[in-house]
Amino acid sequence: MAGATAGWACVPQPIITSVQPRASGAPDDRVTVVGENFEPVPVEIRWNATDGPLLEKATGPTFSVAVRIPNGDPGLYTLIALSRQTSGAVIGTARAAFQVTVGSNGATAKRTTQTDGGAGSSSNDGVPTSAVVAGGAGLVVLGAAGGALASSRRRHR
After folding, report:
1. pTM to 2 decimal places
2. How do beta strands 24-25 and 30-36 pair?
3. Cα-to-chain-centroid distance, residue 42
4. Distance between CA atoms of 138 and 148, rounded to whole angstroms?
5. According to the 3-state scheme, what is the secondary structure of 84-109?
6. Phi, psi of 41, rounded to the nearest 5 degrees
7. Cα 88 from Cα 98, distance rounded (Å)
8. CA 18 to chain centroid
9. For the range 119-127, what are the long-range contacts, defined as Cβ-Cβ under 8 Å and sequence gap of 24 or more?
10. pLDDT (tens digit, 9 = 90+) per residue, 72-85?
C-alpha cells in the first residue's frame, strides 16, 4: 500500500513557471504567462479568481501565452491558470502573484518597508517578494483570501 501512495506523490502538479518579463507592471501592460504539467486540454488564464475575468486561453500540457493586465488599483493580484474537464469541473490550477504598480487612475503602489519577512515585505526593487515568481525547480506557494495574498519567506536549511 505504501508503494501506491509514494507513486501518487510523484505526479507533477500544474505550475506557472514564470511571468515574463516580470511579475509587476501597470494596467494594459502585456506579460507572458508560462506553465507546465497541465492536462492536454484548454487552459484558461484568469485574473484574481478562478471565476475572474478571462484574460486568454492556451492549451496544455505546456503553454506560453501573452495576456494584457486589466485596469485596477495598485496592489497584489493573482494570475490563475486552470484546466477543466468537458463537464466543467476544474482538474488543474496554478497561481502566480502579480503586482500592479500603477493604477488605471495614475495612483502608484506604496512601497512596503516591513522587514520581518511577513506578507507584504519588499525586495530591493520595490516589488513585494510574494509577487516574485520563481522558475525552474523553485516552488512558491501562495494563498488567496478576498484578494489578499500571503506568503512565507522562511528558508529551509
Report:
1. 0.65
2. unpaired
3. 18
4. 22
5. ECCCCCEEEEEEEEEEECECCCCCEC
6. -135, 170
7. 26
8. 8
9. 119/148, 119/149, 119/150, 119/151, 121/153, 126/101, 127/22, 127/23, 127/24, 127/99, 127/101
10. 999 999 999 999 99
